[in-house]
């Protein structure tokens, strides 16, 4: 940002800068309106107007500095690098990180996390946990945005296995691997919701409509989501 002494006269008056912004905004509005109208009549097909990204069929490529979902980094032997020092949970302003520490089998390492969970419904993705970690055990370079699909609040709690799995995928499939897995999971969930063999899931797609159990004392049981990834790390507690 420029200091006031470095601004030109036009910038200090502000009005010319406001007019320049209005010119840019109206240019894009008129251009897109013209192109969309021309596309309706089959004209100017080679020129694309600004449109909403039709996710998940198409998506924008995130920048290298994108602050995405978390992952737990791994040691060369595949074990989690985290030492359960609780600095990330202490630094978290949303208090969305839960850690349960246990004694590490390696005598040279004092502790490791038996459980490491992040409640993504509370997380504000500020990155303070990454800055606070003294051993580079948690990062946000997965190039994956937070999940937007779930049948229960606990479906949005990311476990230690999932956080470690993202590091495996990043190492084997590259930066697009985690996004591809998440999109495949979304598509499978969508197929299951409209699967005639699982009619109980349809109650979650029409919550505004009267439900057959309305007024009854019995509560609707929880419906589990599909596993987010095949397999997992066997060193986490069951």
Written overview of the protein:
- The chain is of the alpha+beta class.
- It is built from six helices and five strands.
- It has helices at residues 9-13, 15-40, 87-91, 128-132, 160-173, 177-193; strands spanning 71-72, 97-103, 111-119, 138-139, 157-158.
- It has a three-stranded antiparallel β-sheet with strand order 2-3-5.
- It is extended.
- The termini are far apart.
- Residues 207-218 and 234-238 have low confidence and may be disordered.
Beta content: 5-15%
The pLDDT mean sits at 82
Q: Number of DSSP helices?
A: 6
State the share of residues found in helices, binned by percent: 25-40%
Q: Radius of gyration in whole Å, from Cα?
A: 24 Å
Structural class: alpha+beta
Please tell me what the overall shape is. Answer: extended
| Poorly predicted runs | 207-218, 234-238
Succession of helices and strands:
HHEHEEHEEHH
Sheet bearing the most strands, described? Answer: 3 strands, antiparallel
| Spatial ordering of strands, largest sheet | 2-3-5
Compute the number of strand runs.
Answer: 5
Task: Tell me which oligomeric state these chains represent.
Answer: single chain
Distance between the termini: 53 Å
């Amino acid at each position: 940002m420029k200091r006031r002494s470095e601004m030109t006269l036009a910038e200090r008056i502000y009005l010319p800068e406001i007019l320049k912004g209005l010119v840019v905004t109206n240019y894009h509005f008129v251009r897109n309106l013209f192109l969309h109208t021309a596309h309706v009549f089959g004209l100017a097909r080679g020129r694309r107007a600004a449109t909403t990204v039709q996710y998940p069929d198409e998506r924008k490529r995130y920048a290298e500095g994108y602050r995405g979902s978390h992952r737990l980094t791994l040691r060369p032997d595949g074990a989690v690098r985290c030492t359960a020092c609780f600095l990330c949970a202490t630094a978290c302003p949303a208090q969305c990180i839960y850690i349960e520490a246990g004694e590490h089998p390696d005598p040279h390492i004092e502790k490791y996390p038996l459980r490491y969970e992040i409640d993504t419904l509370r997380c504000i993705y500020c990155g303070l946990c990454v800055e606070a970690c003294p051993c580079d055990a948690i990062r946000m370079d997965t190039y994956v945005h937070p999940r937007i699909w779930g049948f229960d609040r606990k479906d949005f709690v990311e476990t230690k296995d999932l956080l470690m799995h993202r590091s495996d995928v990043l190492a084997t499939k590259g930066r697009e691997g985690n996004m591809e897995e998440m999109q495949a999971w979304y598509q499978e969930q969508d197929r299951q919701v409209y699967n005639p063999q699982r009619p109980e899931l349809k109650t979650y797609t029409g919550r505004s409509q009267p439900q057959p159990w309305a007024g009854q004392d019995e509560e609707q049981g929880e419906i589990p989501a599909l596993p987010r990834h095949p397999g997992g790390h066997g060193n986490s507690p069951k």
